[in-house]
Sequence to fold (461 residues):
Amino acid sequence: MKLCEILPLFALFTFTQQATSPQDKCACELINSEKAFPHDKFSTVEDQSSKCNSNITPQKTMEMESLLLGLERRLPQLQEDVSMLEREDDGELYAVVSLQVIENELREINQLIDRLNRTTLGNQRLTNDSTKQLEELRAEMQELETYDTMQVIKTQKSNLRLRKDLEQCRTGAHTITHPTQPPHGYCPHGQFVNITRPRLHTAGEYPGSYKYGAWGQDPKPEAGRERWYWLVMLTSGNKFSNYVRLYSSLSSLIVGVSQPGNVQIHSSNPTTNTIQGPNVVMYGGALYYNCYNQDAVCRFNLTTKTVSNLQLPKGTRYNSKGNFCHLDECYQFTDLDLATDESGVWVIYTTTQDFGNLVLSKVEETEPLRLSQTWRTSVYKQGVTNTFVVCGVLYATRYIDKDVEEVFYSFDTRTGLERFNVGVFINKMSPNIYALNYSPVNQMLHAYCDSLMVSYKVLFN
Fold:
């Protein structure tokens, strides 16, 4: 080996030894030229946004809607009473009594207007304050984004746009053709996808008095009754009832003016063919419900005041032996659940042969009543809190907590397909929903919750 080749190797070795010598020390000083992140300001922004969310609630909007509906009902009534007085004024006792009635109505209307004015002013102040807060929050968030030197937020926004464009591309490229469906399975609205927050809530005429009950609209009303609403309250030990209460409009139900009033099934309560349990529906001018002390469906015709009976299959559980339940409570006398959809009336129940699983049957509007077809499911009824039917699909709910109920299960009568992962959540105004009815008239869900009447809009894609 040549001497010129040995010398560079020896020099390299010497340098390495010196670099790794324990006597030598290396110190680095890191200087950050960036400003420190303002954690205090970020915490303040979080607190302000939480406060804004707590101040703006659906209840504030629904309060105004309820007051406006009350005025909508009262003003035409006042006009009608004044017109009657002008037509029939005798200048004596009748005129005095009529004027007193009109004076009372004016006083109530003024009270409604005062409440509406106070609510409106409060909402205006809330809107102004919230607008100012949102502008301040937006400015502060934009300032905080300047600390994102690695462009994380900008990249996330860009990724979201790309993901949205990709999804639209996929959807447009693969159009799905839906098969032809039989009448009871056809849904003109599309596929059920969600439920809104409460659109309306009211305590009605008897706030807090009757824990169990049901309410709603007739999907197939008689002429002149298209705007009517019905209400059934279990007045005997929260178990039984012997009448249905009628209201000429939604506003009259909200303000507690029942016209034409009660239609009585029987003078006694309970007795043969009166109502047992809260799960009732109205269809075609008749009330469908669980007959008192029977494994049968009763149909009470409100015009003729007659009752028809439909005996359910042998082994059907009744008298509070097959209730809806959750971990803390079972809802008494909910063995039979009646439901309406676009095609008519359904009954949901359970039998000893089905080991407590839900059974669904279609009720035919014949005389006498009969079941046309029956479907059996694999969902256990006492793990369910309520059911309803939309376009021939059975949906079941379960209790999550005092504020939320989940639509977790569905059974399609057209295909026989069961799903246990529907995952649609209902925001509750009270812990327990004792009755849940779907109205195909306006695609609303009517819930009766601890004496409170609540409605939700069903959303389709």
Remarks:
- Confidence is low (pLDDT under 50) at residues 1-19, 173-184.
- Residues 93-145 form the longest helix (53 residues).
- Residues 166 and 199 are 34 Å apart (CA to CA).
- The chain is about 30% helix and 30% strand.
